[in-house]
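Predict structure. Input: MFS transporter, 415 residues.
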Amino acid sequence: MPSPYRDLFAAPGSRGFSAAGFLGRMPLSMMGIGVVTMVSQLTGRYGLAGALSATIALAAAVCGPQVSRLVDQYGQRRVLRPATLVSLAAAAGLLLTAHFRWPEWLLFVWCVGIGCVPSLGAMVRARWAALYRGTPKLHTAYSFESVVDEVCFIFGPIISIGLSTAWFPEAGPLLAAGFLAVGVFWLTSQRATEPVPHPRERGSGGGSALRAKGLQVFVGTFVATGAIFGSVDVVTVAFAEEQGHKSAASLVLAVYAAGSCVAGMVFGLLRFAGAPERRWLLGVCAMAVSMIPPLLVGNLPSLAVALFVAGLSIAPTMITTMSLIEEHVPRAQLTEGMTWVSTGLAVGVALGSAAGGWVIDAAGAGAGYGVPAVAGAVAVTVGFLGFRRLKRPAVGRGGVVEQHSERERQERHMA
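Output follows.
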């Protein structure tokens, strides 16, 4: 491992919460596809399977920011454990309902409950921020976490689908629930690195982190970015099927994620001068432009190359976004702010998947790559229109608040 990454883990407790966060994030890429595989195997109904997967995604988009908002106020341990128990109970209900063929409407109820799953990526990034805020190591930490995200999305679906098809239909979602339980309870047992909560005083106002103008720009842009990801997944599967090699779709999509993984590792080793807002906008533009070559390819090897190149812009843009959120969201709402970006991505993925499927049915897989190209153009448009807002940091950054947070962090380490 390059020295900046090795130095990153010199802080006490950093290895433990990073490992716990990795396990707890695996369900993000395993649960949805696991439910699709399970339900399609048990019932043969892909429409029902897709609807259930979409229900989980939309429920997580609604519940995730609320869970993170409570975390900012009361702490990770007090909030994550009850929220996870709700999600685990719902997952158990889903598996039992599917196995015993109970009423279908129950499946949707359980999927809504699964949406209470906390955003472990935001929780781990908040711990890195508490350790390294204001230092170059925070950039490296965010880069590392972006790589972890991509690793989860490379291997999670493969594990989930493989278990459900080779063992028994419920195996994929069951293992995802197991990863969630171990990851969350291991993470919340590590009190020394838990960020200090910020209880809101009665009558102080507060409100959602989404009131921050800069965060609104990020969320709007990442809805369009999520549409890129969601449509690329669906269209790539259809394209591979048209080419007569549907099973190769998972490999091509793994190459897409690998491009982001490589870029994230390299990006973490670099140090930049100048305004990060410009790097962010450049990254959004690069993601949009990278969606043009897939429109022109005619075979799977060429598509794999085009998607690998497209993946190179993903992790750097995500890393820069997380760094900018630190400047545009009040310290007391950092976890919620990070989760809102993930929520935007989740909503975009659902929209992109639906739009991609509609275009495929109407005009074929080749035309389907027009959906991520259009989504990229929308992301660039939102980024340019909101760029001026990104030059206005959130109120309360610096001064007394900075000193107070630093004192809290020192007290935490002394304890």
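The longest helix spans residues 14-43.
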